[in-house]
């Protein structure tokens, strides 16, 4: 079994991080390490994490932004496979089972991406199976839905520290541009917890960084002399998401 490193970036996440970590431990996968990178929290995040049992490694750094936090996690990771989960999200129990099985059966695949389900909830234990089965899930380019080979970072690098938001969009564009082999599955693997403090609630700022990521991709493709006819897919349309990765650059 390949060792998996699960990276959890956090800033002032004492309210939810225990449930995020528990959802990783509930995968019952071995060997596994959980790397919590605390980006300068001023609340009780450290105490919450340190009181949890399991193969959990806690690292504190001065506030440096989400990209630097993710990059530190990659630096600390010792697993052959990497995944991420935000401190306020949770994985469904079969996430790693499904995705590791696919990677083992398809060694040419470098990243597998599942579906995400946004749900408004406070406590994970209160979420019912009906809410999950009846919820409107979607294929979203979100790191918590992925499992990837660590070698991908050797090919395209880590996250751009100039991106304070949409750093994952920027990274996924580079994945596409590099021709990384990506497979999208339709199983729901993660719940995106909707609450009042979601950083993406400020649509103006979020959209500005998404556009910045797209503009950077356009500039790179123009410089390389390849096609720029690659609009963002409709993330609710699985076929468009697949084509986003399968389309060949001329």
Q: What are the SSEs and their pairings?
A:
Elements (H helix, E strand, L loop, with lengths): L3 E7 L6 H9 L6 E8 L5 H6 L5 E6 L4 H11 L4 E4 L5 E2 L3 H11 L5 E10 L8 H6 L3 E2 L6 E4 L1 H6 L10 H11 L4 E13 L8 H22 L13 H9 L4
Parallel strand pairs: 1-2, 1-4, 2-3, 6-9
Antiparallel strand pairs: 4-8, 5-9, 6-7, 6-8
Helix pairs in contact: 7-8
Summarize the structure.
With 250 residues, this protein is an alpha/beta fold.
Number of domains: 1
Instruction: Please give the radius of gyration in angstroms.
Output: 17 Å
CATH-defined architecture: Alpha-Beta Complex
Overall pLDDT score: 87
For the sheet with most strands, the description reads: 9 strands, mixed
- Parts with pLDDT < 50 across at least 5 consecutive residues: none
CATH superfamily: Spore Coat Polysaccharide Biosynthesis Protein SpsA, Chain A
Q: Determine the strand fraction and express it as a percent band.
A: 15-25%
Structural description of this entry:
- With 250 residues, this protein is of the alpha/beta class.
- The chain contains nine helices and nine strands.
- Strands 1, 2, 3, 4, 5, 6, 7, 8 and 9 form a nine-stranded mixed beta sheet that branches.
- Helix 7 packs parallel to helix 8.
